[in-house]
Amino acid sequence: MSTIHRVTAVCAVSAVALTAACSSGTNASGGGADKLRVAAVATDRAGTEAVIKAFTAKNPGVEITPSYSDTDQYQGTLRTQLSSGTAPDVFFAWPGNGNPGAIEVLAPTGYLADLSGRSWTAKIPSGIKPVTQVGGKTYVVPLTFVGIGALYNKKALGEIGGKIPTTWTETLAMCDAAKAKDKYAFALGNQTDWVTQLVNYALVPTTVYLGDKDFDQRMKAGSATFAGSGWGTAMAKYLEMNERGCFSKDPLGTSFETSVSQLAKGKAVAAVQVTSTLNQLKSEAPAGTEFGMFPLPATGNAADTRMPGAAGGAFALNAKAQNADLASKFIDFMATPEAMNLYAGETGNLPSIPNDQYKTDPSLQPLVDFQKAGKTVPFMDQLWPNPKVQQAHFTGVQNMFSGKADPATVLKQMDKAYTEK
Length: 421
Prior knowledge:
The structure is a single chain. By secondary structure, the protein is an alpha/beta fold. The chain has helices at 15-29, 45-58, 71-84, 103-106, 154-159, 168-180, 198-207, 215-221, 230-243, 256-264, 277-284, 324-334, 337-347, 365-372, 387-401, 407-418; strands spanning 35-41, 63-69, 90-92, 133-134, 137-138, 141-142, 144-153, 184-186, 268-274, 291-294, 307-311, 314-317, 350-351, 376-377. The strands form three sheets. Strands 7, 8, 9, 10, 11, 13 and 14 form a seven-stranded mixed beta sheet that branches. It has a five-stranded mixed beta sheet with strand order 2-1-3-12-6, with helices on both faces. Helix 1 (15-29) packs across helix 3 (71-84), helix 10 packs across helix 11 and helix 15 runs antiparallel to helix 16 (407-418).
């Protein structure tokens, strides 16, 4: 998913600072065979640094200069760097489409090196392989399999006398139980634009794809639209949760960081988030706090529920890398079980290529179970034709929460953005 992976340690630098850091890295490298520049989003910093540490341990004398920034800044700065020839040798890129840093946007420009000849490409699971390719050629090494669901604080759930909801009615009942104990059922930081999409992404696999597995193909063919689809059902439920008092007080005035703190400290029982948020929650929570995860129900039948699950953190090789040989070696290392397991463990996700060496965090077992059962759906934006659809979704949800738009209006705006070039 595109802007969905955003969470662990926040080391956001400004776009200007990132550009300066990368530029200084270019000058410092001087084309040396032992120097490499790597850029990633701040939310995946811990995973990136773990892989860099392992790589340099195996390659003494190699110096890697990493740069990190928050997602929105990263996307804009990366495009500027690529067009000016100052981009890092290896950099974070999003699988599929839907945002300015996605490979279907970048590959046609010639900025990305073709990785199709690597032996590891044959091991990429068929479920995520399409979003790692453009025109049949592989352009990223995917490191993680990421999910979206309700991460919950086990102690807080016990304090409201609640249970994990398996139906829509039970979800609303949990909201009522939380309010009775002066807690939020779901922490929600819609002040941060990318957070706005998560509840819809958690509901749409059930409201849309349960009954219409070919919805994306029909959208592409022009025989389906957001308006009139199960997207409307999901948005109506999103607003119903807000009206029921399920969320943090004033979601539009609550940031992502604040919502994480609410859940970590037990003010909130749960939060619909990406799996990578789990490690940040653990780092902020009191010692001994335990977390779990459950899929967000959307119907009265637990068997109906589906979860979003997709290729997450991924890296591309700059087609004009200053140090192409070392960059190529680093990309291949990223595709090893050792590197993937380190990255997945640090970011709170699963390795994109399953292997027996990885021990799954018990909190994420529901995602594993749904993946094995074939009950996961790719992140919606990875299959959208341009970044404008996602932006229309961000803005539309914020407008719904401020009373400036209704679901029908937002869906029409998304349909319009979908057809724009």
